[in-house]
Design goal:
Order of helices and strands: EHHHEHHEEHEHEHEEHHEHEE
Strand content: 15-25%
CATH architecture of the largest domain: 3-Layer(aba) Sandwich
Helix content: 25-40%
Number of strands: 11
Largest sheet: 7 strands, mixed
Oligomer: single chain
Strand order of the largest sheet: 7-6-5-8-9-11-10
Radius of gyration: 21 Å
Shape: elongated
């Protein structure tokens, strides 16, 4: 048996020794999830004694983290846009920088928007699509993914946040004829170049789905296809929002311009100063 204060201290040391870049935070998040409590309770009741059974169970979680498994896969959930999403190894873990996509969409559409049809391409956990369905109650959000397992996770997340009745789910690669015309295309597609993938942290390569990350020699295979095929799906005046990777601004800008049907092309940096979102409008 051990109290919370001691357990957090020991866990932080173990995770630091195991190479975690944020050992204290990892320890707290793991323990909060394991005990189904919050940070306030950990701080207010550091003297709480955990049973031997609780200590043993938590130790298994710590061992998984020491082996490099991401915290979100251990706890089974990740916060995005102030909403908790179920995640497992069928889906990429939502990143905070992807919230920039949501922010850009909401600059043009919001609770007052009526009769809006949005497609979230490569939905994964459904984080983007569900967040937009929550923020734009009158919208219909179409979520597509090539992974059946990912779509099952996305459906559960839509249920969790009361958005299932306003979402449609399609299994397939990028677009499907069943979708019809849309007002908004949004996507966080794979954008890691093939030769960069081996350089990613082991915790990403060993656990997160490879097909959700790599995108050909220049990392723009999916951007190229979405921009080209999206031109036929997007209503005149409709908008497209894509997450991009480091150094891809010039290439994606050219893809939009070469298509000839897009205008108002612009890019948005994330809060770390990196170009993160590419956006454009379909010419009327």
């Amino acid at each position: 048996m051990m109290d919370i204060r001691t357990l957090l201290h020991q866990t932080t040391r173990k995770l630091a020794a195991g190479g975690s870049p944020s050992p204290r935070l990892d320890a707290e998040v793991l323990l909060m999830s394991f005990l189904k409590t919050d940070r306030l309770q950990l701080c207010v009741h550091p003297e709480r004694i955990l049973t031997e059974e609780e200590c043993a169970g938590f130790s298994l979680w710590v061992d998984r983290r020491r082996q490099g498994e991401p915290v979100a896969y251990i706890t089974g959930e990740k916060e995005f846009w102030s909403l908790l999403f179920e995640v497992n190894r069928d889906v990429l873990i939502p990143r905070p920088e992807t919230e920039c996509l949501i922010e850009e969409v909401l600059k043009y559409y919001g609770p007052e928007s009526d009769d809006l049809r949005i497609i979230d391409i490569g939905t994964g956990s459904g984080a983007i699509g569900v967040a937009l369905a929550v923020e734009i109650p009158a919208a219909i959000v179409v979520a597509t993914d090539i992974s059946r397992g990912a779509l099952e996770v996305a459906r559960r997340n839509a249920d969790r946040h009361g958005a299932a009745g306003r979402m449609e789910f399609f299994e397939g690669s990028l677009f499907t004829s069943a979708v019809g015309e849309v007002d908004v295309i949004v996507s966080n597609p794979p954008y890691i170049p093939d030769d960069v993938y081996p350089l990613l942290p082991e915790g990403i390569r060993a656990f997160e789905p490879r097909e959700a990350l790599i995108a050909g020699p220049d990392g723009a295979a999916f951007h190229r296809k979405i921009i080209r095929e999206g031109a036929g799906l997007l209503k005149p005046g409709g908008r497209i929002f894509l997450e991009i990777g480091e150094g891809q601004k010039g290439l994606v800008d050219s893809l939009f311009r070469d298509e000839g049907c897009y205008t108002d092309i612009y890019f948005r940096k994330d809060y770390g100063g990196m170009e993160r979102v590419a956006a454009a409008r379909r010419k009327i």
